[in-house]
Design a protein that fits this description.
- The protein is of the alpha+beta class.
- The protein is built from twelve helices and 26 strands.
- The strands form six sheets. Strands 1, 2, 3, 4, 5, 6, 7 and 8 form an eight-stranded mixed β-sheet that branches. The chain has a four-stranded antiparallel β-sheet with strand order 9-10-11-12, with no helix packed on it. It has a four-stranded antiparallel β-sheet with strand order 13-14-15-16, with no helix packed on it.
- A hairpin with an 8-residue loop joins strand 10 and strand 11.
- The termini are far apart.
- Bound molecules: calcium ion (4 copies).
């Protein structure tokens, strides 16, 4: 065998060197890749590992858990279009997908389908009512059958239930045998046009007429369908407004599926509000005139729920629990006597602070004051936490509560973040222990928000009328020096504390000198906690305050001025939901196991 030639030796040596270098580079590459993967894992495990409730001193340091900052000039164009991404992946724009999901004809929701077509007919009717002197049978013919009949649509007599210099409210004294107006019967489109002409007589000289119909019950029966709906008519008169809120019972001929014809109408209920004001209206929406010169007003505030839903990859999957509920706070942050405004925005959009000017407009100063946080903020409070006379800032977000001090009416300084696994919603502050400083109560909807998964943990089953597997609300005692302690359990507020809470409000309802607490809960009963020397007892049942409807908000007020505070709870109601409730398909949904 001949030995290799020198040139072959050189080639082989060079080749070995190349292989060794390649192997070395490959090893280095693998090591770098492993290091990057470890880094990502380490960061993610740190995020998931937030402590529960009140943090230790180290984790509440302002230097840790610093909330993300936004840019005041961030534009919506920075956010990629959900439609574009969706179309690239599937060829179907996201907005079209949503429309398909929302099409009741696809999955047998015939009452919803009818709700749409009858709703369109009622909208046509509403447009006809806007010109009372032009109401004619030829306009009604496309809406009412030739067989149409109705009694008068105007109530015979109204009973005054409240009156002062500005507002007069009346309700229908229910029809009785002597009410001759109701005995009149109108036939066909011509008859309906006369009944509507009579209904609109009080609005004949109105400058501006607004109409709105809401169907809240649909009962199909062969070729006929019965609906119940609210019918609202409002008009601006020379010295104020006239509003009629009525309930109509309607029967429809449904043989023309695209345009059902009215067979009859019947008046069921009436409430009338008359206001007398030289300026015309009690309240005017000044959001635009106060804020429109700030870029975020048009670029972010005017965008609706559906815009952000389609624009954000993350929100799309968390829509029901993570979008559409950011709150706001009012307070005078610079001590000039004018209330200023802090607005929470959806996750990824910076929260906004507005300083009110003498002329009533407000300038956006979020970045300058250090509070343009991008966290998934749900609510805020402007209150004086350290009793130095200025308004400090609290922001509840999914992950905890940010506490910031007001520094000389010039900026906010992050003091601490109180971490929480709960799915925090709103907050309410009061000095529950009468020690001279404000303490915080924070409501939670779901629990385990910051668990092992990025998405909220769904609570199943979700018992609609008495849910008891929701988040746990927190009572945080103010210990001074920006330290807060979770005293929920020791204060007795762990009783009935697994409900789906949205709102809470403090008031001394029993007039014994301490602050009591009402909590409005979705999916079931509310809580009224009586405060006895800093310890709470749930007295909602004995106090008759165990409202089982879907609680959204709560406020106290002594409405009859007898010295005892009363409660107003706002509950959820949906005309579409009410109409769907009677659809048999609702009961076909399989139960979660
Ligand atoms: Ca101010
Ligand atoms: Ca303060
Ligand atoms: Ca206190
Ligand atoms: Ca009390």
């Amino acid at each position: 065998m001949s030995s290799p030639r020198p040139s072959e030796d050189i080639q082989q040596t060079a080749s070995c060197r190349v292989r060794r270098r390649f192997a070395g580079s490959l090893l280095l590459f693998i090591l770098i890749a492993l290091f990057i993967i470890w880094g990502v894992w380490w960061n993610s495990s740190k995020r998931d590992g937030n402590g529960k409730h009140i943090s230790s001193a180290s984790s509440t340091s302002p230097n840790t858990n610093v909330p993300s900052k936004g840019h005041s000039d961030k534009k919506d164009s920075d956010t990629a279009s959900g439609d574009e991404r969706s179309a690239i992946k599937t060829g179907v724009p996201f907005s079209e997908k949503l429309r398909n999901i929302d099409d009741p004809s696809q999955d047998g929701w015939d009452t919803e389908l009818f709700n749409k077509t009858a709703g369109a007919q009622l909208k046509r009717l509403g447009n006809i009512l806007k010109k009372p002197d032009a109401i004619a049978a030829k306009h009604i013919a496309a809406i009412a059958s030739d067989n149409f009949t109705c009694s008068s649509l105007t109530p015979g007599s109204l009973k005054k239930i409240f009156a002062d210099d500005v507002i007069e409210a009346s309700r229908w004294a229910k029809p009785h045998a002597n009410d001759r107006k109701l005995e009149q019967t109108f036939h066909g489109p011509e008859g309906l046009s006369r009944a509507l002409g009579e209904l609109m007589q009080p609005f004949a000289n109105a400058n501006y007429i607004r109409t709105k119909f809401k169907i809240f019950r649909v009962e199909p029966d062969a070729n006929e369908v019965t609906t119940q709906q609210y019918a609202e008519i409002a008009g601006q008169l020379d010295d104020g407004w006239l509003e009629q809120h009525t309930t109509w019972l309607a029967r429809w001929d449904n043989r023309n599926k695209n345009a059902p014809q009215l067979l009859s109408l019947k008046l069921e209920d009436v409430e009338q509000i008359r206001t007398r004001l030289p300026s015309g209206t009690l309240f005017s929406d000044c959001t635009k005139s106060a804020l429109e010169h700030n870029p975020c007003y048009t670029e972010q505030f005017l965008r609706g729920y559906m815009y952000w839903l389609s624009a954000s990859q993350q929100m799309r999957y968390l829509v029901t629990d993570n979008l559409g509920t950011p709150g706001l706070a009012l307070g005078d942050i610079n001590g000039d006597g004018l209330d200023d405004l802090y607005v929470c925005q959806e996750q990824g959009l910076p929260n906004r602070l507005f300083l009110q000017q003498q002329n009533g407009t407000a300038n956006e100063i979020s970045a300058a004051w250090g509070v343009d946080w991008l966290e998934d903020s749900r609510s805020a409070l402007l209150i004086d936490l350290d009793n130095d006379g200025d308004q400090d800032l609290l922001v509840a977000f999914h992950g905890g509560i940010i506490v910031a001090s007001n520094e000389n009416n010039q900026r906010f300084e992050l003091r601490t973040i109180i971490p929480s696994d709960e799915h925090l919603m709103s907050m309410a502050a009061a000095d529950y222990d009468n020690d001279g400083d404000l303490d915080i109560y924070a409501t939670a909807f779901l629990s385990q928000w910051r668990g092992k998964t990025a998405a909220p943990v769904p609570q199943q089953p979700r018992v609609y009328h008495d849910g008891n597997n929701g988040g746990q609300n927190l009572l945080l005692k103010n210990n001074g020096s920006w330290q807060f302690e979770d005293v929920t359990q020791q204060a007795g507020l762990d009783a009935n504390n697994k409900r789906f809470s949205f709102a809470a409000s403090w008031e001394d309802y029993d007039n014994d000198g301490d602050q009591d607490l009402y909590v409005a809960n979705d999916f079931g009963r509310d809580n009224l906690y009586r405060n006895d020397d800093g310890h709470f007892t749930d007295v909602s049942q004995e106090a008759g305050a165990e409202d089982a409807a879907s609680g959204m908000g709560i406020t106290w007020g002594d409405f009859d001025r007898d010295g005892w505070f009363d409660i107003h709870v706002s509950n959820m109601w949906s005309s579409a939901g009410a109409a769907s409730h009677f659809n048999r398909n609702l009961w076909k949904v399989p139960r979660a196991t």
